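Re: that chain you flagged

S.,

Sorry for the slow reply, it's been a week of failed gels. I finally had a moment to sit down with the sequence you sent. For the record, here it is as I used it:
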Amino acid sequence: PAGSGAVLTSSISAGDVVSVDVTAYDEFHTGGSTTLVTSIGQADIVAPEVSISPSEVGAGDDLVCSIDVEGVDPESGSVSHIVQWSLNEKLWTGATLDGDEDGDTIDGSLVEQGDRWTCEGFATDGTRHSDPGTDAVEVGAEPPTTFYSLDDGDLVGAGDTCSADEAVVDG
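Prediction finished late last night. Pasting the structure tokens below so you have them in one place:
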């Protein structure tokens, strides 16, 4: 036994079963006894923190999922990491490249405008897996360019408005 009384006198570990017998009494009466039994489980593995680079992605850019903060087994066990990709909310089963982690890179030839890529990083002790650390990027088009011109030292276009359908001069 790990001890008796209100305090356990030796350590307990995952997988141990702990039971407590409780009897209520005072100076006049003794009540019935109750036994509580519980199994000591393993603490959850803490998820890693991940990020995708570049954070602003254009078509043709390689994507790299980095483990920024490693996952942790609170019971001091060692962990390794697993990287998993999704494309447009569907698990990616296509080709990946290996960098710091197996499968952490998507070749730029697979990255197209309008795609949403998600990286999930898991920590594992070989038996148990953490919840995922997650990051996502959307592949955008080139940012629009705004042009202004100078006419006799005045900025032309500063008071103008423009929509995708038409341009209106305000002055």
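What I noticed first: The mean pLDDT is 81.

Talk soon,
D.
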